[in-house]
Each structure stands twice: as structure tokens, then as C-alpha cells.
Write a structure and sequence with these properties.
Strand order of the largest sheet of chain A: 5-4-7-8-1-2-3-6
Shape of chain A: globular
Radius of gyration of chain B: 17 Å
Strand content of chain B: under 5%
Number of helices of chain B: 10
Helix content of chain A: 25-40%
Helix content of chain B: 55-70%
Oligomer: heterodimer
Shape of chain B: globular
Number of strands of chain A: 8
């Protein structure tokens, strides 16, 4: 590659850097060319992307988040603590206790209920069967249900050996070629009873748009950021 | 395509979209410790930042944490914004996008690039009339882009579509979408530079 070609290649990679679409190989190539050519990131590209992004679709800002980001108003006159404040506080606490007694506990749907609701409400949801691999995972079976629209999904699994969470955990990976070459982390989970079936909500860490396969691996406790796929438990693919 | 062009060009026309958004500025007041400016900045730009984050981060809790980090960076670096170089909204969008990209790179263990803020320290005194990424000039530059580039920019920036979604929408191969967006950005920069002869690639004085 001539110097001019390297310059042109760096330009293209630097645009990818500003757009945020460099993959691992391209990032390494950017670093190498940057050092070789003595080039730095072009901030004009970033500013240009910023200006273009400035009118991108907005979303409703979570109300609770604003409170975490802005300090309480300052400079307001302090309320004087008067003698009746203690009685008022006691009355409030009593009121709260009375209210709590009357409160109906909030019902949180189980994973099974949530999965069934997804199946009822999302006729377009993807359904793929899981197949076990080899050895102790040969009998593993089940199904994955995933909705691109709701970014929600569930695994229903049977005959996967129970794990000791202190030793290892199962981890789901979602292969989405429309994103990039790295599968998306779908969350870690434990199997307490090997017979099953057990329903596990998918906890995709990144948006998934066109999943081609779902892979369960066994990893160290807490999971890993990138799996070496040394122990593949089960696979579901289109 | 007509719609794409109108949207893309209209978006940089301040009077076309949200005049109050760019008319009111906050960062210099925030740098001076004005809490009310912080609140107002969140009201005006919070939905933009949240939209940028949520398009990339599906987990609600993680998105909230990342948004908090973004605004913390904006608060801390409020004095670094130079209104002579970029609009406040563009500056905030740039930080939000950059931090979101960094977050994804960390999650996927992609090699991390040097933080952009290290390069954003623009020496005092270099800003001068004529250096600003003027919105009118930007509008003219975008009008000069090829039809295909305007279409892809419209899908990516106006409609917030990922490369994969654009490929599905247009029927173009994924790699072609990626390459076309990159080359389109380079093309836009070339057109801008022709109109801003004093602007250097670092955004400072030549």
C-alpha cells in the first residue's frame, strides 16, 4: 500500500471512528496507521456527526433520572425547626404505617407469565428450538422466544445439568450479524434443577435486531464479556 | 429522496426545527455554577441524549447510568464548549454519541480509543470569527451531497436507524452501508472545508 493509499484508508477509518462503527480489526488498523502517518483523530468529523445527530429522534427522558443529575435547589430560605415538628413527624410516620397495612402487595409477573404474555401479544415473535451439544449437554433441549419489536425474550430449558453458581454459570449469547461480528451478551443464569422445564428471561445488554442464533455457554461465575465458547451447552439457530 | 433532502437540510436550519433549543444556551451558565441552567439544559437536551443512548443500549438501568455519566461529563466540561466552534446541541450530541460508543466498546471488549476529551482542549484564543461550524454553511454543504449519501444520512441520523436496519430498508449490503456512510461523512467534510477556508481539521486556527 502506497502512502497515498494509507492516507485514504486512514481517512475512511477515521470517519468510521467518528461514526462509531469500527470493528476490532479496523480499530487496530486505525491505531497502526495513525502511528505510521502521524495522524490524529479529526475532530471536525466528530463535530459534524454531533451536528447531524443533534436532530436525531428524541425520547421521553425518565423523570427519576433528572433528580439524580441536578442538585437540590440552593439558596432557599431554611425552614425553622419549631417545637411542633417532632409531633408532626410522629403523626406522619403513624400515617405511613397505617397506609402500608392497607397496601396491597404489588404483583410481579413470573417469568412464565411474562413469556406467555409475550406469546399472546406478539404474533411475530421468533421461536427457535434449542438442541443440546455433546456429553452431559446432549439431552439439553428447549426453546427460545424473542421479539425484536419489544426487545424481550425468554428461554424455556430442560435437561441442562444444575450448576454451582460459585463454580460456574450459564450465559446466553445472541448472534446478530446485522450488528457486528461479536455476539450480544444475553445474561447469565443458573439451573437449580436439571429436569426442568425452567423459564429464564433474556437480558440482552445491547439492542438485537435480527438474531440468527442463540448460544448457551458455561462460563466462570458472573459470566464473561467475550466467550471463548469452550463449553457450548445448547444452540438454537434459524 | 425529496423528503430525505428536506429533512436533512431542514435539520440544520435552526428556524425550521426548534428555535428555542438553540436560542437558549446553558453551558456557560452551568460552568458558572448555575443550577437552574442545569435543570433547563436537562429539560431541553435530556430527551436528545436519552434517545441517542437508548438506540444503542437496550437495558434501561444501564442506559440511565450511562446518561448520568454523559451529563456528568457535560457539567464538568461545560466551560470547554466554545460557541464559536459548534452549537451547544451539537456539542452535547457529540459527547453523548462518543460516550455511548465507548460504553459499547467496553461491553464488547473492542479496543478502546483515546478519550476524545483529551483532544478537545482547544487552546484559549484560537477561536475567531469564521471558524464556527456555521449552520447555514453546513446546510449548504449537505445540499451538495450526492443523492445516495443524503438518503443514507437521513436514515441514519434523522430516523436513528442502525447500519443493519438501513441495509434491510434499502436492500444494500451491510458493508456497502458502512462504507457509504463513512465516505459520505468525508464528502461532507470536504464540502464544509471548501466553505470554511480558515478551519483546520483540529477545529482551531491554521
Amino acid at each position: 500500500m502506497t502512502r497515498e493509499e494509507k492516507e485514504a484508508r486512514f481517512e475512511e477509518l477515521d470517519a468510521g471512528r467518528a461514526l462509531g462503527d469500527l470493528d476490532a480489526e479496523e480499530t487496530a488498523e486505525w491505531e497502526k496507521l495513525s502511528a505510521f502517518l502521524g495522524r490524529k483523530p479529526d475532530l471536525l468529523l466528530d463535530r459534524l456527526v454531533g451536528e447531524l445527530e443533534a436532530s436525531s429522534p428524541a425520547a421521553i427522558f425518565p423523570a427519576g433520572l433528572a433528580g439524580r443529575l441536578v442538585p437540590a435547589p440552593r439558596g432557599r430560605p431554611r425552614i425553622r425547626v419549631v417545637a411542633w415538628a417532632g409531633w408532626a413527624l410522629a403523626a406522619c410516620l403513624l400515617g405511613l404505617l397505617a397506609l402500608r397495612k392497607e397496601e396491597t402487595p404489588r404483583t410481579v409477573p413470573t417469568a412464565v407469565e411474562s413469556r406467555d404474555a409475550l406469546l399472546r401479544e406478539e404474533s411475530q415473535a421468533l421461536r427457535l428450538p434449542f438442541a443440546g451439544t455433546v456429553g452431559e449437554f446432549a439431552l439439553a433441549e428447549g426453546e427460545v422466544i424473542w421479539s425484536d419489536a419489544r426487545q424481550e425474550g425468554y428461554l424455556t430449558l430442560s435437561h441442562i445439568p444444575s450448576n454451582d453458581p460459585g463454580e460456574s454459570q450459564y450465559q446466553l449469547w445472541i448472534v446478530d450479524p446485522s450488528r457486528d461480528e461479536f455476539p450480544v451478551d444475553g445474561g447469565v443464569f443458573n439451573i437449580g434443577s436439571s429436569a426442568g422445564p425452567i423459564v429464564i428471561p433474556i437480558d440482552a445488554k445491547l439492542p438485537v435486531h435480527a438474531p440468527a442464533a442463540f448460544v448457551i455457554t458455561e462460563e466462570k461465575p458472573g459470566g464473561v464479556v467475550r466467550s471463548k465458547q469452550e463449553i457450548v451447552v445448547a444452540v438454537a439457530k434459524r | 429522496l425529496h423528503d430525505a433532502k428536506d429533512d436533512l437540510v431542514g435539520k440544520v436550519n435552526v428556524s425550521n426545527s426548534s428555535p428555542s433549543v438553540d436560542a437558549e444556551t446553558f453551558l456557560s451558565r452551568i460552568a458558572g455554577g448555575d443550577d437552574d441552567a442545569m435543570r433547563r439544559c436537562l429539560e431541553v437536551h435530556g430527551p436528545l441524549v436519552w434517545g441517542i443512548v437508548r438506540r444503542q443500549v437496550s437495558d434501561h438501568g444501564a442506559a440511565e447510568d450511562l446518561t448520568q455519566e454523559i451529563f456528568t461529563e457535560i457539567w464538568k466540561g461545560a466551560s470547554k464548549h466554545d460557541p464559536g466552534l459548534s452549537s451547544e446541541r451539537g456539542y452535547i450530541a457529540m459527547i453523548a454519541r462518543r460516550r455511548t460508543i465507548d460504553w459499547i466498546r467496553q461491553r464488547t471488549r473492542l479496543p478502546e480509543l483515546a478519550p476524545l476529551t483529551e483532544h478537545m482542549e482547544i487552546p484559549a484564543g484560537v477561536a475567531a470569527p469564521g471558524l464556527m461550524l456555521d449552520r447555514e454553511i453546513l446546510r449548504h454543504a449537505l445540499e451538495s451531497l450526492s443523492e445516495e449519501t443524503r438518503r443514507l444520512f437521513h436514515l441514519h441520523f434523522d430516523r436513528g436507524m442502525s447500519h443493519g436496519e438501513i441495509a434491510a430498508e434499502t436492500g444494500l449490503p451491510l458493508g456497502s452501508v458502512k462504507t457509504a456512510l463513512r465516505r459520505g461523512l468525508i464528502e461532507a467534510r470536504v464540502l464544509l472545508k471548501r466553505r470554511l477556508p480558515v478551519m483546520t481539521s483540529e477545529g482551531g486556527a491554521p
